[in-house]
Fold this protein.
Amino acid sequence: MPIGQRVVLIGGGHNALVTAFYLAKGGFKPLILERREFVGGGAITEEFHPGFRASTLAHTIGPPAASRNSPSKTPRNTPSSPKRSRIFSRF
């Protein structure tokens, strides 16, 4: 791909922002397209109740899988599905 060429990135999450940085540093012209009015993806803080703000991704996924499942209960190479935190299960 020739240097200076336009590169389109779909989604403005933190991975796309880092990718755009390195593309621009390498001489390309990245264009990020995001459907929301702000970028950041899961690495943003939102107000989930008036006066209460929290990191969106960290609190919707819940604790790491290692703390929820003991190694003896979860077979190896089996993906575990993340569960929502109790505080968000009511919303």
